[in-house]
Amino acid sequence: MRKLLKRPDLGIIIGCLFIFALFTLYDPAQWFNWGTVSNIGEYTAILGLLAIGQSFVVLIREIDLSVGSVYGIVGIAFVGLENNNVSDVLAFVLAMLLALLVGLVNAALVIRGKLSSMIVTLGGLFFYRGLIYIITHGAVTGVPQAVRQNWFAQLLGGHSLRIQNGFLLLLILGFLCAVTLHETRFGNHLLALGGDPASAESRGVPLGKVRTIAFALCSLFAGLSAIVTLTNDPETSVSLGTGMELEAIAAVVVGGTLLTGGRGTMLGTILGSFFLTAVRSEIIALGAPPSWYVSFVGIALLTLVTINTLLLKRLRISG
Amino acid sequence: MITGSDGQSRPAGSPKKPLISIKNVGLSYGNFQALTDVSVDFYQGELVGLVGDNGAGKTTLIRIISGIIPPTSGEVYFDGERIIKFHPKKAIDLGLECIQQAIGLCDNLSVGRNYFLGREPVRRILGLPFLDKKKIREASAKVVHDFGLRDSVDVDDEIALLSGGEKQTFKIARAVTFRNRVIIMDEPTNHLSVRERTRVNELAVQLKQQGLLVIYITHDIFQIHRIADRIVILENGRKVTDVPRDAMSAEALEGIIRDGSRTSTKEPKVS
Ligand SMILES: Nc1ncnc2c1ncn2[C@@H]1O[C@H](COP(=O)(O)OP(=O)(O)O)[C@@H](O)[C@H]1O
Ligand SMILES: [Mg+2]
């Protein structure tokens, strides 16, 4: 019990139970409809993958505002390669290498350039979005129909037992990342860096290496999220991923990860993604204009952060 | 006493090579000169008091020794070998541990994880390395017990729950149990109660008796004079005094610190 109360993600666990109960009582027909579940699963996977990557960066007191544009450019690179008869596995590998490169550039600018990650990745947000327009001249096509039937595209974008593979991928990778965060030396170093960089450094934690891996993971997850999106839903445009960086950060923070670093869980991040997605779906189902969702994200953010802060204070006082 | 070729004194009967040798080290933060031409040797098995007013450059000197910042000029030798690459990990690997007032513990991590931070034990499952949580828990619980911390301290709790004195004791305990060769303590008794202070000083003497080099930084000359073998005084980034404890009284040393700016950089003659 005491262990449960100390969890950083307690707020979002309660939040998810709350909306689950609310929607069950209020709108069961809509809520327990397979179409709804399926939609929520799909978008939770997309947002969740982005948010898991973002968690690594937020946990070390940094932020990555470039992920929406990285999501866009990696997705468009993937589609572009496929349309030029590059095999899908190779297209995937090349697109992910692009994501890795972006992450390494972000890390290098932050570490070697001693620039704030907010500035570096804000630059990235504009730069990569602009690059998409320059390369595509504003016109992009989707993933070719033939390619979508391939085993590889099905692996990322298809279904297993009616459940989206993307969602299963989110659960598997979320689990692996949680284990990495809490059960490995790297995870311990990451949390230490997020909690107190000077102390971590004095104990010999290789700060540069940990930061580099965190930024690389963040971009890789953004790229993976884009490819999962496109193998499932071939529609695409030059605005692919616009605004998703803020949604991902919101999911991370709603999920109980402190923006000041060092405290958070992957479960919280996944639940945060689910929470935002489920409520969006319900808002649309209720016939409210989808734009209400944007205001809702703001309200959810403030409410859950307040709850988390209160829980944390209580914890610090009671010991 | 023997006076070395470089004019530094060291205990008679120990014609050993210095464990740490600082030669003509200078350091500037931007265009502020924090250390100027500092040369000092440290030997195994001695407790050296590094004393000086606030801002004298004591912390800066030990930040260089513990690999956090490289000197702007001069050389540092460890066990006769010149240090080229300055990195905290390297200093730790050489067996040098620095205990600083505000640094060394991550408040968001558990007591056990702080104990092993940077040298976490792992065990392999399916060939993959995972934290050995059982070992982390047991080893840190033993240290908490052996060093007389509260029994209510749970090593799975965040270390933020410990008091200042408990944290300081814990840092020293960590330094001791990892079999180091050099322990540097930077103002280890600030903000501690009288009893906790006595405890820390006892620990410092014990470490020296076990053959370690202990560098003890303080601005309280009377406290350190009681336990040190040798006193080194820094003033405005320069070494102004380097004498065996018995060569000067605490009052005389205090006079040097007080009138620091008027004292020449020449060392008192000891023969
Ligand atoms: N990171 C830094 N940047 C600039 N000046 C510094 C820095 N650290 C210390 N100083 C300055 O260097 C001088 C020596 O500081 P320090 O070594 O901490 O002294 P002490 O530990 O003896 O009190 C002080 O004047 C201090 O203001
Ligand atoms: Mg100091």
Look at the structure and name the CATH superfamily of the domain at 2-95 and 181-263 in chain B.
P-loop containing nucleotide triphosphate hydrolases
The CATH class of the domain at 2-95 and 181-263 in chain B turns out to be Alpha Beta
Report low-confidence residues of chain A grouped into runs of 5 or more: none
- What percentage of residues of chain B falls in helices of 4 or more residues? 25-40%
Order of helices and strands of chain B: EEEEEHEEHEHEEHHEHEHEEH
**What is the correct CATH architecture of chain A?**
Orthogonal Bundle
Oligomeric state of the chains in view: heterodimer
Helical element count of chain A? 16
Quick one: which chains have the greatest interface? A-B, 25 and 29 residues
Strand order, largest beta sheet of chain A = 1-2
What do we call the CATH topology of chain A?
A: ABC transporter involved in vitamin B12 uptake, BtuC
Low-confidence stretches of chain B: 1-8, 261-271
Under the CATH scheme, the architecture of the domain at 2-95 and 181-263 in chain B is 3-Layer(aba) Sandwich
Give the percentage of residues in beta strands of chain A: under 5%
Biggest sheet features of chain B: 6 strands, mixed
Please give the domain count of chain A: 1
Globular, elongated, flat, extended or rod-shaped: what is the shape of chain A? globular
Kindly state the mean pLDDT of chain A as a whole number? 88
CATH class of chain A: Mainly Alpha
Question: How many strands appear in the DSSP assignment of chain B?
Answer: 14
**What form of chain B results from the Cα inertia axes?**
globular
SSE topology:
The complex is a heterodimer of chains A (319) and B (271).
Chain A: H1 2-5, H2 10-26, H3 28-31, H4 34-59, H5 67-83, H6 88-111, H7 117-136, H8 145-148, H9 151-157, E1 159-160, E2 163-164, H10 165-183, H11 185-195, H12 197-202, H13 207-232, H14 244-254, H15 266-285, H16 292-318
Antiparallel strand pairs in A: 1-2
Chain B: E1 2-3, E2 9-10, E3 20-29, E4 32-42, E5 47-51, H1 58-65, E6 73-78, E7 81-82, H2 88-93, E8 96-100, H3 111-116, E9 122-125, E10 128-131, H4 133-146, H5 164-177, E11 182-186, H6 194-209, E12 213-218, H7 221-227, E13 230-235, E14 238-244, H8 250-258
